[in-house]
Amino acid sequence: MPHRASTVPGHTLTGAPPPQSAATPGAGRVAIVSASVGAGHDGAAAELARRLTAQGYAVDRLDLLDLLPARLGRTVQEGYHRLLVRAPWAYQRIYSSTARAGGGGPVARALLRSAQDRVLRALPPGTDAVVSTYPGASRVLGDLRLDGRLTVPVLTYLTDFSVHPLWVAPGVDVHLAAHAVPAAQARAAGARDVRVRGPVTDPRFRPCDVRERGRARERFGLPSHAPLALLVAGSWGVGPVRTVARELRDCGAAVPVVVCGRNEALAERLRADGIDHAFGWVDDMPSLMHACDVLVQNAGGLTSLEAFACGLPVASYRCIPGHGLTNAAALDEAGAAAWIRDPADLKAVLCDLIDGPLGRRQRATGLALFAQSPDGCPTTEIARVHRSGAPDRVSLPVAPRHRTQRRLATTAVLASLVCALATGAATAYDDPHLVHAIGHRLDPDGFPEHTSPSTDDHS
Question: Are 164 and 140 a contacting pair, CB within 8 Å?
């Protein structure tokens, strides 16, 4: 169900922009639309909500998957998950083909159009601004802005360092980026107003002292003096985790500490492999990061930003297809994380990150992301846009809803079935040509923050 916060009086969605007095505490209402696809998009939404609430705003959180018709959100999520688990090579083809095309195909557009009325109805009266932390939500909200049905400002907060074209929706008023590298990619994809305002992470992610480090190691039962490499693989714990854990152990640079997310079966297999420090879901990731010396990741999502906030150097290694590879390239370009492309370089790079000049440079680069800029943080910018109100938009013709709603819902149902059947056929017959054709019709909106495992993690 959509998340809700407390409500306050405000302005209607189709009324005039809020007056300047709306900047005072308690005078504004912001809706944040995310999607429960992995943990990164929801994590960013939660921190934005916390900060905005502290500034006096009433905040409503919505999950786009809950607003798709006929419970299709969960069906699509599960279908994409199966694709990533069974055929990560297919995900790479889909991701690449949609990036070249500048977005998704007609099936995805029909599915997102079918959510427009539901999203509009879910926004409470008095909402003054809407923020998206998920590309599909940005597309829905941008279209509502373009056709004149939503007249309050819409902002997209880019959660990744790399920006797939699906992130950039023409109707969105402002795109907020954590760094100049994703900002440049968003502009290249057609975003008109992009502002660099830094990342958002839970305030518990911060540098620690030696005493805190020792307490954290004791709490998790970790060696008190050995260098530790924290290996993460998203909230689903997928990717070539077992391979990387063994490589970390065998190279001798650091003791592997592995977080498997909700994949408890993977944690059990790792322990059977002789990886002593393998955890499932961890509620206190700040303390675990405080205990470790370097982070090894394969997707480049929110966990990397949290590590930067802790002053923990980051290495991208054996990245998952699609966004994992593009995030690794963007983080490397920004000088924020080392991208280890060759396994032969693993030990040398890790040693340099743990106790060398590369690690010192990366700690400084990561912490600099969180230095307060003269223009403020993302929530300061959201408040600024809220005070300014929505700029005028050129309205596009809108088809009568009573004529199109049934057709769109039917299209969405058929789209889901076609996706499931086509993906199953492509996987069963191992036909790359079939998957390439599917790629021109599918939209990887459900993919960000998912991770794709190698067969060694599901054997």
Answer: no
